[in-house]
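Question:
Write out your own:
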Amino acid sequence: MEQFNKAQYINRGGELTLPQRQRSYYDCLSAEYQFLDRDTALVDLAYLVTNGFDLKQDIHVYEEYHRGNGREDIINKIIPTLVKYIMCMQYGDGSSYVASVALRFFNKLPQDVIIEILEKELKLRYNNHNHSVQISYWNEEAWDNLEKQK
């Protein structure tokens, strides 16, 4: 991973922002998403959320922009993409199969609840000292160890 550069997370107005286009983070089938490696995306999101970035608001703005352009196909990729991040952090696997199984559960939840789960996972797993996100296979012992580290 590249050396940490805090400036990449600040826009010209001095506000926290994603360093890449929103679609790179919120549309798992887009070309932009494919070019941004998973670890970088997770670190970007974790750093921002940990430092007060309003992920929910950013996703709503992204969603409304595409809704205004009649792009329901893009909007429909938000939840699967967020679930992939959650599955990747919890199970070390964000593959299509794992995410599709998890979607059966997550699709019953409101989008805002899924965003809150993602935010909690990001905050729990972000290591500010080495600018990384801990990826692990979830089990009770691993969860307890993560909580003890905070």
Observations:
- The radius of gyration is 15 Å.
- Strands lie at 126-127, 132-133.
- The chain has a mean pLDDT of 88.
- The CA atoms of residues 66 and 72 lie 7 Å apart.
